[in-house]
């Protein structure tokens, strides 16, 4: 799949969301990015970045690559900033792979997404299919016994992203209960991993609009929350931009 195809796919989805809900949700989202929400996103993202860096370091060591935790955190911040600002949403991981080896980065991304899918599936299937949810929980428990550090770090990281989404929902004026918002957040987080995006934008907003509409909260509100989440996530990765700038100056 070419990068041009990925970007075009994201643009098509964004255009569809704009046609569906109009420009107002995008304006409201930017206006809702207050200091409290921004600080919360920075703090939560710092915690998730440490968790992800720890997971990457554990996997890298098992593959014979030593990445000190401080260096891993800095590299992860740079990676997140590049993913959030460049088309495709993966160029930051390519940057990590060039500097620290491809296999550890692939293992890191793959394990994180696998745990996220299992955890999201377990939560989303509790109501309609409890037996399937039980099987997924057993799978998570089995993985936890084999790779406790990797699974724990992945679960904590996913929880951090969900919390940032909840911060965005409250800042955007959504008064739905946490029980209603958490499954929606998990769906949107899964959509954010779809490769057809423009620096993370596209499927995330489309799925949020659809999911909020299906839940009776309104497509416009879903788009507003997703856009605000994107704004908060972008601001929270700015330390990575600072690190890249410092590296460029030193070079």
Automatic annotation (TrEMBL):
Signal peptide: none
Pfam families associated with the record: LPG_synthase_TM
Localization of this protein: Cell membrane
Keyword check for Cell membrane: yes
Highest taxon above the source species: Bacteria
Membrane topology recorded in Swiss-Prot or TrEMBL: Multi-pass membrane protein
Entry-linked InterPro entries: L-PG_synthase/AglD
Parts of the chain that traverse the membrane: 33-54, 117-143, 149-169, 176-196, 208-236
Keywords, sorted A to Z: Cell membrane, Membrane, Transmembrane, Transmembrane helix
Record protein name field: Lysylphosphatidylglycerol synthase domain-containing protein
């Amino acid at each position: 799949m070419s990068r041009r195809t990925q970007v075009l796919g994201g643009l098509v989805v964004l255009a569809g969301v704009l046609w569906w809900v109009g420009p107002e949700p995008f304006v409201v989202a930017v206006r809702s990015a207050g200091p409290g929400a921004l600080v919360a996103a920075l703090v939560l993202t710092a915690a998730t970045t440490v968790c992800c860096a720890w997971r990457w370091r554990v996997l890298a060591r098992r593959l014979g690559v030593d990445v000190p935790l401080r260096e891993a955190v800095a590299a992860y911040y740079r990676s997140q900033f590049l993913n959030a600002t460049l088309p495709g949403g993966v160029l930051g991981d390519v940057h990590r792979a060039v500097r620290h080896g491809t296999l550890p980065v692939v293992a890191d991304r793959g394990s994180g997404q696998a745990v996220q899918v299992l955890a999201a599936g377990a939560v989303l299937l509790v109501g309609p299919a409890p037996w399937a949810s039980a099987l997924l929980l057993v799978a998570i428990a089995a993985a936890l016994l084999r790779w406790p550090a990797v699974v724990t770090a992945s679960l904590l990281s996913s929880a951090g992203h969900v919390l940032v989404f909840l911060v965005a929902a409250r800042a955007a004026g959504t008064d739905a209960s946490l029980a209603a918002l958490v499954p929606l957040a998990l769906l949107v987080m899964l959509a954010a991993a779809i490769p057809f995006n423009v620096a993370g934008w596209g499927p995330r907003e489309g799925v949020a609009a659809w999911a909020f509409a299906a839940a009776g909260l309104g497509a416009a509100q879903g788009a507003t929350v997703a856009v605000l989440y994107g704004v908060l996530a972008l601001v929270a990765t700015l330390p990575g931009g600072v690190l890249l700038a410092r590296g460029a100056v030193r070079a």
